[in-house]
């Protein structure tokens, strides 16, 4: 695969492009500003996002609109119970050459794109879901012993229905951990619902225009990675992660009682890169405690496992995250 080009991006241009992306998405998606912001952070970080919500809230439309806004190769995979791993990554097919010989040729699957919409990902079996693991972590695909690189930028934006709904399979913890953010999509408010009806029940349908390409997205991601983070903020992130582990002496009270397992080091990485991009989106090059708190729910809610007592009590991981944030002091060294 070809090496992706990169555009050098400064702080001011970063903000202009990010605002343009959110503005164009807002032409189609009504409200959901926090959801859009979280998805944009994932894209700029080169990470993957998992959107969860009941059917009909616009999860797929949001990701499709983002595909329209970004000048990238877009691919959609509709996950169903009969979907096989080869339907995602591709397979070797036997072809006859011009001189009459037969040879195998790799036929790439839909995973070979820049922006991959994995629609209703938890409707496929765990075997098929596992086909995404290598692509999401290594950004490569291995078929018949041969490894193929995926073009940059590459990110998976997946949707899933709540596990309580019919025909769903829980995603393995190892796969959940590879999503930078898990974003809950709420039901729209009354005013937003009225606007949705006005926009979508007429002849004219809202359209979003392209405002950024792959080179700019990669450049924005590099700017975020190069943004320094103060030592006391990094220590704050580490203390939050430790506070999510029930066996730790520094565990937050609710997590000590109701959590089975806490967030992984990937959760700390997600907090750091998410906080950096959140600061840049606010036109700041200094990362603060508040930037960490702003992205904490999306970065950690899929990385904390409830124990049986927590499930029986009907607690949400968001409540446990809030308890961890309140239990960890903001101390500047």
Provide structural commentary.
This protein has 333 residues and is of the alpha/beta class. It is built from 15 helices and 13 strands. Strands 3-6-9-1-10 form a five-stranded parallel sheet. Helix 2 (33-45) crosses helix 12 (265-281). The longest helix is centred in the C-terminal third of the chain and has 17 residues, at 265-281. It starts with 10 loop residues before the first helix and ends in a 6-residue tail after the last helix. 42% of the residues are buried.
- The Rg value, from CA coordinates, equals 21 Å
DSSP E strands, number: 13
Number of helices: 15
Q: Strands of the largest sheet, in order across it?
A: 3-6-9-1-10
Strand content: 15-25%
What structural class do helix, strand and pairing data support? Answer: alpha/beta
Low-confidence stretches: none
Helix/strand order, N-terminal first: HHEHEEHEEEHHEEEHEHEHHHEHHEHH
Q: Roughly what percent helix?
A: 40-55%
Shape: globular
Termini Cα gap: 46 Å
- Mean pLDDT over the full residue set: 85
- Largest sheet composition: 5 strands, parallel
Structure summarized in a few sentences:
The protein is built from 15 helices and 13 strands. It has 333 residues and is an alpha/beta fold.
Defining key terms:
333 residues, alpha/beta, 13 strands, 44% helix, five-stranded parallel sheet, two-stranded parallel sheet, globular, single chain, 15 helices
